[in-house]
Amino acid sequence: MNSIYRTGVGVAALLAIMPLTRAMEPIAQLPGSAQGHSQVMSIMFVNVDALAAQLNLSSNQMGKIHEIVKDATTPMIAMQEKMQDHRDELKKLHLASPIDYSALQALGNKQARLMQDMLLLRSQTQSAINAVLTPEQLEQLHF
Question: Do the beta carbons of residue 8 and residue 21 sit within 8 Å?
């Protein structure tokens, strides 16, 4: 029973986080975003043009932020591709008969680790961006 419960928890966790993977859609596809921006800037949920306007960023700050986001984009894209692979694998597992609960558990664990890695990358990117901003800009950004 304990094994079934753990498997059920893993499957529930996987199903609960699947809608979050849709939140990874690039900002360039969202209304009000700068269409001229490459996916590099949008994939990390950073609209540098909007940030520049909001915080009155200097060209030096904008350049640094562009680099920070650009450096984080390649690993984020790789993680998004893995998320898609997990969704595809989940579909196959649900169509299988009988359902392989241990495979679902393993997939749930992989998905949880991937989400953790994505959260960490976003946090590291935000921290690096914060380091470029003045105290006044940080106050504007967070309040």
Answer: no
